[in-house]
Amino acid sequence: MLQQTRVGTVIPYYSAWLRSFPTVRELAEASIDDVLKMWEGLGYYRRARHLHQAAKQVMERFGGEVPSAAEALGTLPGIGESTAGAIASIAFGAREPVLDGNVKRILCRLYLLGEGPDSPPATRELWRLAGRLLPDREAGVFNQALMDLGAMVCLPRNPECGRCPVIQDCLARQSNAQDRIPVMAGRGKPLPHHDIAVGVIREGNRLLIERRRDDAMLGGLWEFPGSRMEPGETPAGCVAREVRETLGAELRELHPFMTVKHAYSHFRITMHVVECRYLGGCCEKTGHSDWRWAELGELDRFAFDTASRKVIRKLKEGT
Prior knowledge:
This protein has 319 residues and is of the alpha+beta class. Helix content is 40%, strand content 18%. The chain has a domain at 193-317: Nucleoside Triphosphate Pyrophosphohydrolase (Alpha-Beta Complex), CATH 3.90.79.10. Strands 1, 2, 3, 4, 5, 6 and 7 form a seven-stranded mixed β-sheet that branches. Helix 6 crosses helix 9 and helix 7 crosses helix 9.
């Protein structure tokens, strides 16, 4: 959960997660819908799917015991070299380094590395430095201290150097370069923007929802039918086209309902929501893995992305 997410955001999710899935076995035996529902709102949903898959593999390949070696941990879905080192050192006391974003930033400043930290040469050098700094004992405590130092003191912008316990050793500080190090490629570039249209499609008291394919972005989550708008296309025209092409259904009474602006990690969207009525059609399962009719009060049982949750809140306000 801490991959790409701050501790303060994670804590309530982590507590609720452990209440629902207190053991690896219970996580492995849970449905992916239940897993995604517990993750709802935390973002980067591929992490939840990987965690579910990893739990299954721990049961199948390791007899239900999480492996203690970083090499074995790295074979599980969603666990890269740094995460494997963190688990091995913190949970099992192994002498393994970590290299998350916080640690990269600290090392780049300590040693005044002028190259972007994600380039292959810089990455190799950062791993070497991270390993060299490890103490012979309590590597897990050391790794946690490094990550905390980056999260609370050695900040990406305006680092609080006056509170830093290693200020005397920091070459970036000595060169007054702490605000320029590390060098991040592409910093400041605007995120691409897409116009999306989705339909709140009614049949009596029921609403039509779709489940995204597992291999798609936000895979496994539920959403209202729609797609990216084509040039010159209206939101109503987009929704009517998408539903006709993917489900073979026809709509009527298409009216604007609301607009939602949302930013993902690599792009932004404006989601134009259209309210409409189901006219008829076969509603076959084609482009999505599943679809169904659900009453408004039932939608809380399904995992939706943040933008769709805003639509649901608006719908509830109107009841």
